[in-house]
Specification:
Strand content: 15-25%
Shape: elongated
Number of helices: 10
CATH superfamily of the largest domain: Zn peptidases
CATH architecture of the largest domain: 3-Layer(aba) Sandwich
Radius of gyration: 24 Å
Distance between the termini: 23 Å
Bound molecules: zinc ion
Number of strands: 16
């Protein structure tokens, strides 16, 4: 009897050129977000392909979500293929949107150039290479066996780069990412071909405003400078908050290791009147705004993180004459981490060992991705990210994906999916 794993690998190796072509075709859809270009054509391209291979295809328009309008409709595609006998459902989810190409490219970012064993283009790494590898993996798996239990799903979703509200969040709210429809999810984000990503840190974005009183710039003693009040806030952060954050270590295996601590970025500060052409305003600023980007560890609570900042501001209001502030939430996501001994993590790790011949690394991501919606909204815990791209290349100029990595990751995904369908994980 022939070895089914060997056959599966042969089928994937035979599709190497097809995998490259598919990646290039996906890159050629300029699905730039914002504003959310070409979602419909890209979703239909994926849907048509899978429909021709026996999948039932649904298109879901996330009407009314941020950025959705007639010119930029938020279109998602979900393809589902039921096997020859009952079993669990394995879902591969990839976001079809990419960030702006930006400057610094030496190649056309939307041509899908192939050079030196790599496919170049915006989204090659994050994450059209991953979507293409998942599609090839699933198609090869279907062709490798006359009978296959369970159900395979592939989705291409919108808006991950802007929070996922017109994509996975919208679908999760409507049951597309919940049991009993789906049991296991793999998100082929670019986290390197031998690493299993089991979750991500949380995030809290907030806006702090300090308030002052306007006066003529030549007589600042008649006003109250909001920028100086904001300086007091930053000074308090430097002296009291940053040392505390740096001392907090997490058990989450976050990479890079610098992100195994609580972090806070001061994203922006705007204070005072805007300057005229060539000359500044002779005014004491009456307000100053700062946006903070605080990243949370699984050991921290959202309430605790917010309370810590508010407490510092309250103390300033007591200590510092004239200090008035407001604090506004902009965005928040709780940290999430799935079980590294859960079925999807275990089967993917075993597949990496088999394909790559080395032990996988379990990691967590410093920033968030769509797993948050699958966990928090869909209540589906058995979810990981695993994909071929190199994490550091995401969002960079001359972004690329290594063809060999795509082939290997397709083998890993096909093997992992097979053991999950058979309930062997
Ligand atoms: Zn991504």
């Amino acid at each position: 009897m022939s070895d089914p794993t060997k056959l599966l690998f042969e089928l994937i190796d035979a599709r190497r050129d097809e995998l490259v072509e598919l990646t290039r075709e996906l890159i050629r859809f300029p699905t730039v977000n914002p504003p959310g270009e070409a979602y419909g054509p890209c979703a239909r391209f994926i849907g048509d392909r899978l429909n021709a291979r026996g999948f039932h295809v649904d298109y879901v328009h996330a009407a009314g979500t941020p950025g959705d309008d007639e010119r930029h409709p938020r279109i998602n595609v979900i393809a589902r293929r039921e096997g020859t006998s009952p079993g669990s459902c394995v879902h591969f989810n990839g976001h079809i949107d990419v960030v702006q190409s930006g400057g610094g490219w030496t190649l056309d970012p939307f041509a899908g150039v192939v050079k030196d064993g790599k496919v170049y283009g915006r989204g090659a790494c994050d994450m059209k290479g991953g979507i293409a590898a998942a599609i090839i993996a699933v198609e090869a798996l279907i062709d490798s066996a006359a009978e296959l239990p369970g159900t395979l799903e592939i989705s291409g979703t919108a808006d991950e780069e802007s929070g996922g509200f017109g994509g996975v969040h919208y679908l999760a709210e409507r049951g597309w990412f919940s049991a009993p429809r789906v049991d296991h999810v793999i998100i082929p984000e670019p986290l390197n071909v031998d690493r299993v990503c089991i979750g991500h840190r949380g995030v809290w974005w907030a806006e702090i405003t300090t308030h002052g009183r306007m006066a003529h710039g030549s007589m600042p003693f008649l006003g109250d400078c909001a920028v100086r009040h904001m300086h007091a806030v930053v000074d308090k952060f430097e002296r009291e908050l940053y040392p505390k954050l740096a001392a907090r270590q997490t058990d989450m295996p976050v990479v890079p290791s610098g992100a195994r601590r609580s972090t806070m970025n001061l994203s922006s500060i705007h204070g005072g009147q805007s300057e005229g052409p060539g000359y500044p305003a002779a005014l004491v600023p009456d307000s100053c705004r700062m946006v903070i980007d605080r990243r949370l560890l699984i050991e921290e609570s959202m309430e605790g993180v917010k309370g810590e900042v508010r407490e510092l501001l309250e103390r300033l209001a007591e200590e510092r004459p004239g200090f008035r502030y407001s604090l506004r939430d902009l965005f928040e996501v709780r940290p999430t981490m799935s079980d590294r001994n859960g079925p999807v993590a275990r089967s993917t790790a075993a597949a990496i060992r088999r394909v790559m011949g080395r032990a996988p690394e379990f990691i967590c991501s410093p920033g968030t991705y769509d797993q948050k919606h699958i966990d928090r909204v869909g209540k589906l815990r058995d979810c990981i990210a695993y994909g071929p791209g190199i994490l550091d290349l995401a969002h960079q100029p001359d972004e690329y994906v290594v063809i060999e990595d795509m082939v290997n990751s397709a083998k890993v995904m096909a093997l992992a999916a097979r053991s999950l369908l058979y309930g062997r994980a």
